[in-house]
Request: fold
Amino acid sequence: KQEVTQIPAALSVPEGENLVLNCSFTDSAIYNLQWFRQDPGKGLTSLLLIQSSQREQTSGRLNASLDKSSGRSTLYIAASQPGDSATYLCAVRTNDYKLSFGAGTTVTVRA
Amino acid sequence: GAGVSQSPSNKVTEKGKDVELRCDPISGHTALYWYRQRLGQGLEFLIYFQGNSAPDKSGLPSDRFSAERTGESVSTLTIQRTQQEDSAVYLCASSPPGLVTYNEQFFGPGTRLTVL
Reply:
């Protein structure tokens, strides 16, 4: 059974600092990995999707890396802003149809 | 374009009542998924539809839970004889045609269910 762990559980940084969020998974036989953002009381917004053959994906200030062999992914958010405050979820797709989610990292960016 | 929509956004019910939760996927999306997020916990997979068929119902927690999809569009998740442990946010997602294991899932805003 795929287990997904996100560290840290919570993170508070001053505005302008770079954010580093970690995700690890136990089964390296994945099809892809997806990073999501969840705002309080809202659904999930997809940020980046990395296929298993890829090493990284970038979108604006966001960059996500994937090391499938070691079961790790890292999401980098450059020059954080208060609007980046949210919970960030990592999810992996294994040899079936469902996503296995981590518990998330709650980020607070202080103005 | 329009995203995934869910209704109602909030539902409060009494223990023992039945509830129906609705999901409207993005137009043209053939795959549809239901997940549950209980307070302080990660998302749990419930069921997956490809078209109107459900090849994977492995996540449904008990026989009180059922789901259907019609017209390769709207889906309804039904919970019979609700229990307090059913309280959660129920999220629906859809993905476009193609090899489903590679496709991105797009999520709706969720339905917050509270069972008193």
